[in-house]
Design goal:
globular, six-stranded mixed sheet, 8 helices
């Protein structure tokens, strides 16, 4: 149940939706007076291999969209010239620096962890915007806060840190879905269960030598270098 809601997550390009658990919202987001509902829009001007995606969180879509000045704070801009298919909303594009940072995050964290948790591509995404914090679960879509990503850090350290965060966010699926499991176990217990199930896969991946680009290193390369 922790995994199924995320495997079935389909938000489209722009949506107004509620985070799975109110506990994921930061104090700043709650103070903004928007309640539990917030906007989530895909940054269509950014693409990467493996169906990796970047979303803008907490920036209004439609007629009340954010100003250009506000978007620049998050490395975003409106690309109205390429807008198509989004009602009353232009397309979001990423600045060169944000695009580079998002690509590094995808290669180092998103794509390897998608494999570890055995999720379809596009279920773990990067997100920027006010209130995203470490991450949010939006009706199953797991959004990880790109601002918390340390590009200069070791890839293994980053993956381990974000692994724990994904476990926490996946556990929220059970709480949101209701049923016996949602009341029988605490959020911490559910997250621990998700971790216990997938940690061996993470360890196996790291032991096999995951490169910073998100792909397993060839053993022959290692032998030649030695």
């Amino acid at each position: 149940q922790c995994m199924q809601r995320t495997r079935n997550s389909h938000l489209g390009e722009a949506a107004r939706c509620s985070s799975t658990a109110s506990a994921t919202a930061s104090g700043a987001a709650r103070a903004a007076g928007r309640g539990a509902e917030t906007s989530l829009q895909r940054v269509q001007g950014w693409s990467h291999r493996g169906n990796a995606a970047l979303y803008a969180h907490g920036l209004a879509v439609g007629p009340r969209r954010a100003s250009a000045e506000r978007l620049r704070l998050w490395g975003l801009e409106w690309d109205a010239s390429s807008a198509s298919g989004l009602e009353a909303s232009a397309v979001l594009a990423a600045s060169p620096s944000l695009a580079t940072r998002a690509a590094a995050f995808a290669d180092m964290v998103l794509l390897p962890l998608t494999e570890v948790f055995q999720l379809p591509s596009g279920c773990l995404v990067a997100a920027v915007g006010p209130g995203v914090g470490r991450g949010h679960n939006f009706t199953g879509l797991v959004c990880l806060g790109l601002a918390r990503f340390g590009t200069a850090g070791d890839g293994r350290e980053e993956r381990c840190r974000w692994f724990a965060e994904v476990c926490r966010l996946l556990a929220e699926n059970v709480r949101a879905a209701g049923g016996p499991s949602s009341s029988s176990f605490s959020a911490a217990e559910l997250a621990a269960a998700v971790s216990a199930q997938h940690l061996p896969l993470l360890i196996e991946m790291e032991m096999s030598g995951v490169a910073a680009g998100g792909e397993v290193q060839d053993d022959s390369d290692n032998s030649e270098s030695s």
